[in-house]
Design goal:
Elements (H helix, E strand, L loop, with lengths): L2 H30 L2 H67 L9 H8 L9 E2 L2 E2 H8 L5 E2 L5 E2 L12
Antiparallel strand pairs: 1-2, 3-4
Helix pairs in contact: 1-2
Length: about 170
C-alpha cells in the first residue's frame, strides 16, 4: 500500500472521529438555546469535514499511484516471463541442432529381418538371426490363442471343439 493511501485513510478516519465532538457540543447548545456556541461548534464541524475531504483526495491519489505501480510491475513481470520463454526456446533449438549434428546411432535391417518383421517369412529360409531361426519365429507368430483359467493356468483348447453361447 502506498504511503499516501495510508496517510489519507488514517487522516480521514481521525477527522471523522474528531467531528463527533463539536457536533455533540452543537446539540447541547441547541437544547439550551445558545446560538453563539452553536455557530462556533458548526464552524469546527465544517473545518473537520473539509479536512476529511482533503484526506479523501489524498487517499484517491495514493490509490491511483498504487494502481499505476501495480500495472508497471505486472508489465515488467510479463516481459521477464516472455524473455525467459524466448531463452528457453533458443536453448531447446540449440539442443535439437546439436542432436542433429552430433553422433547418432544408425540401425540397418537386412532384407530377411524386414521379412520377419512384416510376417512374410519363407519356410525355405533357414538362416540364423541372433541365434533365433526364422522358422521358429514364424511358428511363434502362428501360435493358436490360449485361454486362461481362473487360477491363471493356460488351458489347451481342443481343435475339434465347437462352442456356442446363448444369450
Amino acid at each position: 500500500m502506498h504511503a499516501k493511501t495510508m496517510e489519507g485513510l488514517a487522516g480521514a478516519s481521525m477527522s471523522m472521529k474528531l467531528l463527533n465532538t463539536p457536533f455533540r457540543v452543537y446539540k447541547d447548545a441547541e437544547r439550551r438555546g445558545d446560538t453563539a456556541v452553536m455557530e462556533r461548534a458548526m464552524g469546527y464541524v465544517g473545518d473537520f469535514a473539509e479536512k476529511a475531504e482533503d484526506y479523501q483526495k489524498t487517499t484517491e491519489k495514493g490509490m491511483k499511484e498504487d494502481a499505476k505501480e501495480a500495472r508497471e510491475k505486472a508489465k515488467a513481470e510479463q516481459e521477464n516471463a516472455i524473455q525467459k520463454r524466448r531463452e528457453q526456446r533458443e536453448e531447446l533449438e540449440k539442443r535439437i541442432e546439436e542432436k542433429r549434428k552430433g553422433d547418432t546411432d544408425a540401425i540397418s535391417i537386412s532384407e530377411s529381418e524386414k521379412a520377419t518383421l512384416d510376417g512374410k517369412t519363407d519356410s525355405v529360409q533357414t538362416g540364423a538371426n541372433n541365434d533365433i531361426f526364422v522358422e521358429e519365429t514364424a511358428d511363434a507368430i502362428k501360435m493358436e490363442p490360449v485361454i486362461y483359467t481362473k487360477t491363471g493356468e493356460a488351458s489347451k483348447s481342443e481343435s475339434g471343439m465347437n462352442l456356442s453361447v446363448l444369450v
